[in-house]
Protein backbone atom coordinates (compact mmCIF):
# COMPACT_ATOMS: atom_id res chain seq x y z
CA UNK A 1 0.00 0.00 0.00
CA UNK A 2 1.44 3.42 -0.94
CA UNK A 3 1.98 6.12 1.66
CA UNK A 4 -0.94 8.25 0.43
CA UNK A 5 -3.25 5.28 0.48
CA UNK A 6 -2.16 4.35 4.02
CA UNK A 7 -2.73 7.91 5.27
CA UNK A 8 -6.22 8.01 3.74
CA UNK A 9 -7.30 4.68 5.17
CA UNK A 10 -5.76 5.34 8.58
CA UNK A 11 -7.39 8.76 8.91
CA UNK A 12 -10.80 7.49 7.79
CA UNK A 13 -10.86 5.06 10.74
CA UNK A 14 -10.93 8.13 13.02
CA UNK A 15 -14.38 9.17 11.76
CA UNK A 16 -15.78 5.95 10.34
CA UNK A 17 -18.11 5.29 13.25
CA UNK A 18 -19.57 8.79 13.10
CA UNK A 19 -20.35 8.79 9.39
CA UNK A 20 -23.87 10.17 9.82
CA UNK A 21 -22.60 13.13 11.81
CA UNK A 22 -19.80 13.75 9.33
CA UNK A 23 -22.34 13.72 6.51
CA UNK A 24 -24.74 16.05 8.35
CA UNK A 25 -21.93 18.51 9.00
CA UNK A 26 -20.60 18.24 5.43
CA UNK A 27 -23.94 19.12 3.80
CA UNK A 28 -24.73 21.84 6.34
CA UNK A 29 -21.33 23.40 5.63
CA UNK A 30 -21.93 23.41 1.86
CA UNK A 31 -25.45 24.79 2.09
CA UNK A 32 -24.63 27.45 4.72
CA UNK A 33 -21.65 28.82 2.83
CA UNK A 34 -23.32 28.53 -0.58
CA UNK A 35 -27.12 28.40 -0.23
CA UNK A 36 -27.63 28.33 -4.00
CA UNK A 37 -26.02 24.87 -4.12
CA UNK A 38 -29.00 23.39 -2.26
CA UNK A 39 -30.92 23.49 -5.55
CA UNK A 40 -28.52 20.96 -7.10
CA UNK A 41 -29.46 18.26 -4.60
CA UNK A 42 -32.59 16.13 -4.18
CA UNK A 43 -35.62 17.80 -2.62
CA UNK A 44 -35.85 15.32 0.25
CA UNK A 45 -32.43 14.76 1.68
CA UNK A 46 -31.79 12.68 4.71
CA UNK A 47 -28.30 11.68 5.58
CA UNK A 48 -28.74 7.97 4.80
CA UNK A 49 -29.95 8.68 1.32
CA UNK A 50 -27.63 11.55 0.47
CA UNK A 51 -25.05 10.17 -1.88
CA UNK A 52 -22.34 12.70 -2.50
CA UNK A 53 -20.21 12.34 0.63
CA UNK A 54 -20.21 8.53 0.46
CA UNK A 55 -19.33 8.69 -3.22
CA UNK A 56 -16.39 11.02 -2.68
CA UNK A 57 -15.03 9.01 0.24
CA UNK A 58 -15.33 5.78 -1.76
CA UNK A 59 -13.61 7.42 -4.74
CA UNK A 60 -10.78 8.77 -2.62
CA UNK A 61 -10.29 5.49 -0.77
CA UNK A 62 -10.41 3.21 -3.79
CA UNK A 63 -8.96 5.26 -6.61
CA UNK A 64 -5.56 5.54 -4.96
CA UNK A 65 -4.00 5.47 -8.41
CA UNK A 66 -6.21 8.00 -10.26
CA UNK A 67 -4.20 7.58 -13.47
CA UNK A 68 -5.61 4.06 -13.82
CA UNK A 69 -9.13 5.45 -13.49
CA UNK A 70 -8.70 8.32 -15.90
CA UNK A 71 -11.55 7.22 -18.21
CA UNK A 72 -13.95 6.59 -15.35
CA UNK A 73 -13.24 9.94 -13.71
CA UNK A 74 -13.57 11.87 -16.95
CA UNK A 75 -16.92 10.16 -17.55
CA UNK A 76 -17.99 10.93 -13.97
CA UNK A 77 -17.13 14.60 -14.51
CA UNK A 78 -19.09 14.66 -17.78
CA UNK A 79 -21.96 12.99 -15.98
CA UNK A 80 -21.93 15.67 -13.25
CA UNK A 81 -23.02 18.24 -15.83
CA UNK A 82 -26.53 16.84 -15.37
CA UNK A 83 -26.43 18.11 -11.74
CA UNK A 84 -25.44 21.60 -13.02
CA UNK A 85 -22.06 21.30 -11.28
CA UNK A 86 -19.62 24.11 -12.17
CA UNK A 87 -15.80 24.09 -11.74
CA UNK A 88 -15.94 26.52 -8.80
CA UNK A 89 -18.15 24.09 -6.83
CA UNK A 90 -15.27 21.64 -6.49
CA UNK A 91 -13.40 23.86 -4.03
CA UNK A 92 -16.53 24.42 -1.95
CA UNK A 93 -17.10 20.67 -1.65
CA UNK A 94 -13.42 19.96 -0.84
CA UNK A 95 -13.36 22.58 1.91
CA UNK A 96 -16.56 21.21 3.44
CA UNK A 97 -15.15 17.69 3.30
CA UNK A 98 -11.90 18.66 5.03
CA UNK A 99 -13.71 20.66 7.67
CA UNK A 100 -16.11 17.82 8.42
CA UNK A 101 -13.27 15.31 8.74
CA UNK A 102 -11.21 17.66 10.92
CA UNK A 103 -14.15 18.38 13.20
CA UNK A 104 -15.01 14.75 13.92
CA UNK A 105 -11.55 13.11 13.85
CA UNK A 106 -10.50 14.78 17.09
CA UNK A 107 -6.98 15.35 18.27
CA UNK A 108 -5.36 12.71 16.10
CA UNK A 109 -6.15 14.66 12.94
CA UNK A 110 -3.03 16.36 11.64
CA UNK A 111 -1.47 18.26 8.77
CA UNK A 112 -0.36 15.06 7.07
CA UNK A 113 -3.89 13.64 6.95
CA UNK A 114 -5.34 16.93 5.78
CA UNK A 115 -2.77 17.12 2.97
CA UNK A 116 -3.46 13.53 1.91
CA UNK A 117 -7.23 14.12 1.54
CA UNK A 118 -6.71 17.43 -0.16
CA UNK A 119 -4.18 15.99 -2.66
CA UNK A 120 -6.32 12.95 -3.46
CA UNK A 121 -9.45 15.07 -3.90
CA UNK A 122 -7.67 17.58 -6.12
CA UNK A 123 -6.30 14.94 -8.48
CA UNK A 124 -9.73 13.36 -8.86
CA UNK A 125 -11.52 16.71 -9.20
CA UNK A 126 -9.07 17.85 -11.89
CA UNK A 127 -9.80 14.79 -14.01
CA UNK A 128 -13.55 15.20 -13.52
CA UNK A 129 -13.42 18.85 -14.54
CA UNK A 130 -11.31 18.02 -17.61
CA UNK A 131 -13.91 15.41 -18.62
CA UNK A 132 -16.76 17.90 -18.20
CA UNK A 133 -14.88 20.59 -20.09
CA UNK A 134 -14.19 18.36 -23.09
CA UNK A 135 -17.80 17.22 -23.42
CA UNK A 136 -19.67 18.49 -26.44
CA UNK A 137 -22.95 16.76 -25.62
CA UNK A 138 -25.81 18.48 -23.82
CA UNK A 139 -25.75 17.87 -20.02
CA UNK A 140 -28.84 15.68 -20.47
CA UNK A 141 -31.41 14.69 -23.05
CA UNK A 142 -35.17 15.03 -22.73
CA UNK A 143 -36.78 11.76 -23.71
CA UNK A 144 -40.41 10.88 -24.29
CA UNK A 145 -41.91 7.64 -23.00
CA UNK A 146 -43.28 5.92 -26.10
CA UNK A 147 -44.55 2.73 -24.48
CA UNK A 148 -44.68 1.26 -21.00
CA UNK A 149 -45.54 -2.34 -20.21
CA UNK A 150 -45.79 -4.07 -16.83
CA UNK A 151 -44.22 -7.52 -17.17
CA UNK A 152 -44.69 -8.63 -13.56
CA UNK A 153 -45.73 -7.17 -10.22
CA UNK A 154 -42.43 -5.31 -9.89
CA UNK A 155 -40.99 -5.16 -13.39
CA UNK A 156 -41.68 -2.80 -16.29
CA UNK A 157 -40.24 -2.63 -19.79
CA UNK A 158 -40.45 0.78 -21.45
CA UNK A 159 -39.17 2.59 -24.51
CA UNK A 160 -37.88 6.16 -24.70
CA UNK A 161 -37.18 8.45 -27.62
CA UNK A 162 -34.57 11.18 -27.01
CA UNK A 163 -36.02 14.44 -28.31
CA UNK A 164 -33.09 16.69 -29.30
CA UNK A 165 -30.58 14.62 -31.19
CA UNK A 166 -29.77 10.93 -30.97
CA UNK A 167 -27.84 9.62 -28.02
CA UNK A 168 -24.84 7.63 -29.21
CA UNK A 169 -23.93 4.62 -27.13
CA UNK A 170 -22.69 1.04 -27.36
CA UNK A 171 -24.67 -2.07 -26.48
CA UNK A 172 -23.98 -2.94 -22.83
CA UNK A 173 -23.77 0.67 -21.61
CA UNK A 174 -26.06 2.49 -19.18
CA UNK A 175 -27.36 6.02 -18.59
CA UNK A 176 -28.61 8.01 -15.60
CA UNK A 177 -32.34 8.58 -15.65
CA UNK A 178 -34.43 11.22 -13.86
CA UNK A 179 -38.23 11.39 -13.73
CA UNK A 180 -38.53 15.13 -13.02
CA UNK A 181 -42.31 15.13 -12.80
CA UNK A 182 -42.35 12.57 -9.98
CA UNK A 183 -38.91 12.64 -8.31
CA UNK A 184 -36.99 15.76 -9.33
CA UNK A 185 -33.20 15.70 -9.03
CA UNK A 186 -32.99 12.01 -8.22
CA UNK A 187 -30.92 10.24 -10.83
CA UNK A 188 -30.32 6.49 -11.01
CA UNK A 189 -28.50 4.40 -13.60
CA UNK A 190 -30.28 1.96 -15.94
CA UNK A 191 -28.88 -0.09 -18.80
CA UNK A 192 -30.17 0.18 -22.33
CA UNK A 193 -31.76 -3.14 -23.26
CA UNK A 194 -31.31 -2.79 -27.03
CA UNK A 195 -28.42 -2.23 -29.42
CA UNK A 196 -28.45 1.24 -31.05
CA UNK A 197 -31.29 1.57 -33.59
CA UNK A 198 -31.64 3.88 -36.59
CA UNK A 199 -34.64 5.60 -34.95
CA UNK A 200 -32.66 6.26 -31.74
CA UNK A 201 -35.24 4.67 -29.40
CA UNK A 202 -34.04 3.07 -26.16
CA UNK A 203 -35.55 0.17 -24.20
CA UNK A 204 -35.21 -0.21 -20.43
CA UNK A 205 -36.04 -3.04 -18.02
CA UNK A 206 -36.63 -1.81 -14.48
CA UNK A 207 -37.48 -3.60 -11.25
CA UNK A 208 -39.17 -1.63 -8.48
CA UNK A 209 -37.33 -2.17 -5.21
CA UNK A 210 -39.43 -2.08 -2.06
CA UNK A 211 -38.24 1.23 -0.67
CA UNK A 212 -36.72 2.43 -3.93
CA UNK A 213 -37.53 6.02 -4.82
CA UNK A 214 -36.75 6.12 -8.50
CA UNK A 215 -37.35 2.51 -9.54
CA UNK A 216 -40.86 2.48 -8.04
CA UNK A 217 -41.76 5.63 -9.98
CA UNK A 218 -40.38 4.19 -13.23
CA UNK A 219 -42.35 0.97 -12.79
CA UNK A 220 -45.59 2.18 -11.19
CA UNK A 221 -46.21 5.79 -12.24
CA UNK A 222 -44.47 6.65 -15.49
CA UNK A 223 -46.73 6.39 -18.55
CA UNK A 224 -46.57 7.01 -22.31
CA UNK A 225 -46.24 10.72 -23.07
CA UNK A 226 -44.23 11.51 -19.90
CA UNK A 227 -40.89 13.24 -20.33
CA UNK A 228 -37.86 11.78 -18.58
CA UNK A 229 -34.28 13.02 -18.63
CA UNK A 230 -31.30 10.86 -19.46
CA UNK A 231 -27.60 11.68 -19.24
CA UNK A 232 -24.61 10.62 -21.33
CA UNK A 233 -23.92 6.88 -21.63
CA UNK A 234 -21.32 5.25 -19.42
CA UNK A 235 -19.87 1.80 -18.84
CA UNK A 236 -17.47 -0.59 -20.47
CA UNK A 237 -19.41 -3.86 -20.50
CA UNK A 238 -19.25 -3.89 -24.29
CA UNK A 239 -18.38 -6.52 -26.90
CA UNK A 240 -14.85 -6.93 -28.15
CA UNK A 241 -15.40 -7.61 -31.85
CA UNK A 242 -11.84 -8.82 -32.23
CA UNK A 243 -12.29 -11.65 -29.72
CA UNK A 244 -13.03 -15.05 -31.24
CA UNK A 245 -13.87 -16.71 -27.94
CA UNK A 246 -17.33 -18.08 -27.25
CA UNK A 247 -19.43 -16.07 -24.82
CA UNK A 248 -21.24 -16.76 -21.54
CA UNK A 249 -23.75 -14.19 -20.29
CA UNK A 250 -25.03 -14.42 -16.72
CA UNK A 251 -28.04 -12.23 -15.87
CA UNK A 252 -30.02 -11.90 -12.65
CA UNK A 253 -33.49 -10.33 -12.95
CA UNK A 254 -33.43 -6.99 -14.77
CA UNK A 255 -29.66 -7.48 -15.05
CA UNK A 256 -30.80 -9.00 -18.31
CA UNK A 257 -31.15 -5.51 -19.83
CA UNK A 258 -27.53 -4.98 -20.99
CA UNK A 259 -27.26 -8.67 -21.91
CA UNK A 260 -30.26 -8.27 -24.23
CA UNK A 261 -28.48 -5.33 -25.87
CA UNK A 262 -25.31 -7.39 -26.36
CA UNK A 263 -27.29 -10.29 -27.87
CA UNK A 264 -29.06 -7.88 -30.22
CA UNK A 265 -25.71 -6.51 -31.37
CA UNK A 266 -24.45 -10.06 -31.93
CA UNK A 267 -27.48 -10.90 -34.07
CA UNK A 268 -26.23 -8.26 -36.53
CA UNK A 269 -22.88 -9.88 -37.29
CA UNK A 270 -22.20 -13.04 -35.33
CA UNK A 271 -21.84 -16.34 -37.19
CA UNK A 272 -18.97 -18.03 -35.40
CA UNK A 273 -19.20 -17.57 -31.63
CA UNK A 274 -21.44 -19.73 -29.43
CA UNK A 275 -23.34 -17.60 -26.95
CA UNK A 276 -24.75 -19.15 -23.75
CA UNK A 277 -27.17 -17.04 -21.73
CA UNK A 278 -27.96 -17.94 -18.11
CA UNK A 279 -30.99 -16.02 -16.87
CA UNK A 280 -31.85 -16.34 -13.18
CA UNK A 281 -34.67 -15.03 -11.01
CA UNK A 282 -36.59 -15.90 -7.89
CA UNK A 283 -39.66 -17.31 -9.64
CA UNK A 284 -41.14 -17.81 -13.11
CA UNK A 285 -42.91 -14.45 -13.06
CA UNK A 286 -39.59 -12.64 -12.65
CA UNK A 287 -38.18 -14.35 -15.76
CA UNK A 288 -40.07 -11.52 -17.44
CA UNK A 289 -38.32 -11.69 -20.83
CA UNK A 290 -37.85 -15.42 -21.26
CA UNK A 291 -40.30 -15.74 -24.15
CA UNK A 292 -38.39 -13.19 -26.22
CA UNK A 293 -35.05 -14.82 -25.36
CA UNK A 294 -36.42 -18.18 -26.48
CA UNK A 295 -37.63 -16.62 -29.75
CA UNK A 296 -34.14 -15.22 -30.38
CA UNK A 297 -32.59 -18.62 -29.61
CA UNK A 298 -34.96 -20.29 -32.07
CA UNK A 299 -33.87 -17.86 -34.78
CA UNK A 300 -30.10 -17.94 -34.10
CA UNK A 301 -28.45 -21.35 -33.87
CA UNK A 302 -25.41 -19.95 -32.02
CA UNK A 303 -27.57 -18.79 -29.09
CA UNK A 304 -28.67 -20.98 -26.16
CA UNK A 305 -30.68 -19.89 -23.13
CA UNK A 306 -30.77 -21.56 -19.71
CA UNK A 307 -33.36 -20.08 -17.34
CA UNK A 308 -33.24 -20.85 -13.63
CA UNK A 309 -35.37 -20.11 -10.57
CA UNK A 310 -34.01 -20.01 -7.04
CA UNK A 311 -37.34 -20.09 -5.14
CA UNK A 312 -39.93 -21.69 -7.43
CA UNK A 313 -40.30 -25.44 -7.01
CA UNK A 314 -42.93 -25.63 -9.76
CA UNK A 315 -40.55 -24.21 -12.39
CA UNK A 316 -39.72 -26.76 -15.06
CA UNK A 317 -36.20 -25.47 -15.86
CA UNK A 318 -33.07 -25.31 -13.71
CA UNK A 319 -33.28 -24.70 -9.97
CA UNK A 320 -30.87 -22.84 -7.69
CA UNK A 321 -28.86 -19.65 -7.67
CA UNK A 322 -27.67 -18.68 -11.12
CA UNK A 323 -23.96 -18.89 -10.23
CA UNK A 324 -24.40 -22.53 -9.17
CA UNK A 325 -26.28 -23.28 -12.39
CA UNK A 326 -23.45 -21.75 -14.43
CA UNK A 327 -20.97 -23.94 -12.53
CA UNK A 328 -23.04 -27.08 -13.24
CA UNK A 329 -22.90 -26.38 -16.98
CA UNK A 330 -19.11 -25.75 -17.01
CA UNK A 331 -16.22 -25.98 -17.41
CA UNK A 332 -15.82 -22.66 -19.19
CA UNK A 333 -12.18 -22.68 -20.06
CA UNK A 334 -11.95 -20.31 -22.95
CA UNK A 335 -14.94 -17.97 -22.85
CA UNK A 336 -15.63 -14.26 -22.55
CA UNK A 337 -18.02 -13.55 -19.67
CA UNK A 338 -20.62 -10.84 -19.14
CA UNK A 339 -22.26 -10.70 -15.71
CA UNK A 340 -25.05 -8.33 -14.71
CA UNK A 341 -27.51 -8.12 -11.82
CA UNK A 342 -27.79 -7.26 -8.13
CA UNK A 343 -24.62 -6.77 -6.11
CA UNK A 344 -25.12 -10.10 -4.32
CA UNK A 345 -25.71 -12.02 -7.54
CA UNK A 346 -22.64 -10.49 -9.23
CA UNK A 347 -20.47 -11.11 -6.18
CA UNK A 348 -21.46 -14.78 -6.01
CA UNK A 349 -20.98 -15.26 -9.73
CA UNK A 350 -17.52 -13.67 -9.70
CA UNK A 351 -16.57 -15.97 -6.82
CA UNK A 352 -17.83 -19.03 -8.70
CA UNK A 353 -15.93 -18.02 -11.84
CA UNK A 354 -12.75 -17.49 -9.82
CA UNK A 355 -13.19 -20.99 -8.36
CA UNK A 356 -13.54 -22.29 -11.90
CA UNK A 357 -10.22 -20.65 -12.81
CA UNK A 358 -11.77 -18.19 -15.28
CA UNK A 359 -9.19 -15.40 -15.71
CA UNK A 360 -10.52 -12.08 -14.38
CA UNK A 361 -9.51 -10.26 -17.59
CA UNK A 362 -12.14 -12.24 -19.51
CA UNK A 363 -14.99 -11.12 -17.24
CA UNK A 364 -16.90 -7.88 -17.73
CA UNK A 365 -19.60 -7.06 -15.20
CA UNK A 366 -22.03 -4.44 -13.96
CA UNK A 367 -23.42 -4.73 -10.44
CA UNK A 368 -26.58 -2.82 -9.45
CA UNK A 369 -24.84 -1.65 -6.27
CA UNK A 370 -21.52 -1.81 -4.42
CA UNK A 371 -19.98 -5.25 -4.29
C1 LIG B 1 -24.39 0.28 -13.78
C2 LIG B 1 -25.80 0.06 -13.25
C3 LIG B 1 -26.80 -0.34 -14.11
C4 LIG B 1 -28.09 -0.57 -13.64
N1 LIG B 1 -29.05 -1.00 -14.50
C5 LIG B 1 -30.28 -1.31 -14.03
C6 LIG B 1 -31.30 -1.81 -14.91
O1 LIG B 1 -31.10 -1.95 -16.12
N2 LIG B 1 -32.50 -2.15 -14.37
C7 LIG B 1 -32.76 -2.00 -13.02
O2 LIG B 1 -33.88 -2.35 -12.60
N3 LIG B 1 -31.83 -1.49 -12.17
C8 LIG B 1 -30.61 -1.13 -12.64
N4 LIG B 1 -29.67 -0.61 -11.78
C9 LIG B 1 -30.05 -0.29 -10.38
C10 LIG B 1 -30.60 1.16 -10.31
O3 LIG B 1 -29.60 2.07 -10.65
C11 LIG B 1 -31.09 1.56 -8.90
O4 LIG B 1 -30.07 1.34 -7.98
C12 LIG B 1 -32.31 0.82 -8.46
O5 LIG B 1 -33.35 0.96 -9.41
C13 LIG B 1 -32.79 1.34 -7.09
O6 LIG B 1 -33.01 2.72 -7.17
P1 LIG B 1 -34.13 3.42 -6.28
O7 LIG B 1 -34.00 4.88 -6.38
O8 LIG B 1 -35.45 2.86 -6.58
O9 LIG B 1 -33.72 2.94 -4.82
P2 LIG B 1 -33.01 3.82 -3.71
O10 LIG B 1 -33.95 4.87 -3.27
O11 LIG B 1 -31.66 4.20 -4.19
O12 LIG B 1 -32.85 2.73 -2.59
C14 LIG B 1 -33.86 2.60 -1.64
C15 LIG B 1 -33.58 1.47 -0.70
O13 LIG B 1 -33.89 0.24 -1.35
C16 LIG B 1 -33.07 -0.74 -0.81
N5 LIG B 1 -32.34 -1.36 -1.91
C17 LIG B 1 -31.49 -0.75 -2.76
N6 LIG B 1 -31.02 -1.64 -3.66
C18 LIG B 1 -31.59 -2.83 -3.33
C19 LIG B 1 -31.53 -4.12 -3.90
N7 LIG B 1 -30.77 -4.38 -4.98
N8 LIG B 1 -32.28 -5.10 -3.34
C20 LIG B 1 -33.06 -4.86 -2.26
N9 LIG B 1 -33.17 -3.65 -1.69
C21 LIG B 1 -32.44 -2.66 -2.22
C22 LIG B 1 -32.13 -0.12 0.15
O14 LIG B 1 -32.61 -0.28 1.45
C23 LIG B 1 -32.16 1.31 -0.25
O15 LIG B 1 -31.85 2.12 0.82
C24 LIG B 1 -28.38 -0.38 -12.26
C25 LIG B 1 -27.36 0.06 -11.40
C26 LIG B 1 -26.09 0.27 -11.87
C27 LIG B 1 -25.02 0.73 -10.91
C1 LIG C 1 -13.97 14.50 -6.09
C2 LIG C 1 -15.12 15.06 -6.45
C3 LIG C 1 -16.42 14.31 -6.65
C4 LIG C 1 -16.65 12.96 -6.78
C5 LIG C 1 -15.64 11.80 -6.77
C6 LIG C 1 -18.08 12.80 -6.95
C7 LIG C 1 -18.71 11.58 -7.16
C8 LIG C 1 -20.08 11.39 -7.20
C9 LIG C 1 -20.76 10.15 -7.46
C10 LIG C 1 -20.04 8.81 -7.76
C11 LIG C 1 -22.08 10.37 -7.34
C12 LIG C 1 -23.22 9.35 -7.56
C13 LIG C 1 -23.57 8.69 -6.29
C14 LIG C 1 -24.68 7.69 -6.50
O1 LIG C 1 -25.63 7.99 -7.23
O2 LIG C 1 -24.60 6.61 -5.90
C15 LIG C 1 -22.27 11.77 -7.05
C16 LIG C 1 -23.49 12.37 -6.88
C17 LIG C 1 -23.66 13.74 -6.78
N1 LIG C 1 -22.69 14.70 -6.88
FE1 LIG C 1 -20.69 14.38 -7.00
N2 LIG C 1 -18.68 14.04 -6.92
C18 LIG C 1 -17.71 14.98 -6.74
C19 LIG C 1 -17.89 16.35 -6.67
C20 LIG C 1 -19.11 16.99 -6.71
C21 LIG C 1 -19.29 18.42 -6.65
C22 LIG C 1 -18.17 19.46 -6.55
C23 LIG C 1 -20.63 18.66 -6.70
C24 LIG C 1 -21.31 20.03 -6.66
C25 LIG C 1 -21.95 20.47 -5.62
C26 LIG C 1 -21.31 17.36 -6.79
C27 LIG C 1 -22.67 17.18 -6.84
C28 LIG C 1 -23.29 15.93 -6.80
C29 LIG C 1 -24.73 15.76 -6.65
C30 LIG C 1 -25.78 16.87 -6.55
C31 LIG C 1 -24.97 14.38 -6.62
C32 LIG C 1 -26.32 13.67 -6.42
C33 LIG C 1 -26.52 13.54 -4.95
C34 LIG C 1 -27.73 12.73 -4.52
O3 LIG C 1 -28.46 12.19 -5.37
O4 LIG C 1 -27.92 12.63 -3.29
N3 LIG C 1 -20.33 16.39 -6.81
N4 LIG C 1 -21.04 12.37 -6.97
Task: Please provide a brief summary of the model.
The chain has 371 residues and is of the alpha/beta class. The chain has helices spanning 3-12, 19-33, 52-62, 70-79, 89-105, 111-133, 213-220, 256-269, 290-299, 322-329, 343-355; strands at residues 141-150, 155-162, 174-178, 187-191, 202-207, 227-230, 246-252, 275-281, 303-309, 318-319, 335-341, 363-367. Helix 9 (290-299) links the parallel strand 8 and strand 9 (303-309).
Which sequence of strands runs across the widest sheet? 4-3-6-1-2-5
Q: What is the H-and-E element order?
A: HHHHHHEEEEEHEEHEHEEHEHE
Q: How much β-strand is present in the residues?
A: 15-25%
Mean pLDDT: 94
The biggest beta sheet reads: 6 strands, antiparallel
Counted beta strands: 12
Low-pLDDT windows of residues: none
First-to-last CA distance: 21 Å
User: How many whole angstroms does the radius of gyration measure?
Assistant: 22 Å
Structural notes for this entry:
Helix 4 (70-79) packs across helix 6. The relative contact order is 0.10. The chain is globular, with a radius of gyration of 22 Å. By secondary structure, it is of the alpha/beta class. The strands form two sheets. A six-stranded antiparallel β-sheet has the order 4-3-6-1-2-5. Strands 10-9-8-7-11-12 form a six-stranded parallel β-sheet, with helices on both faces. The chain has helices spanning 3-12, 19-33, 52-62, 70-79, 89-105, 111-133, 213-220, 256-269, 290-299, 322-329, 343-355, and strands at residues 141-150, 155-162, 174-178, 187-191, 202-207, 227-230, 246-252, 275-281, 303-309, 318-319, 335-341, 363-367. The site of protoporphyrin IX containing FE (HEM) has 21 residues, from helix 3, helix 5 and helix 6.
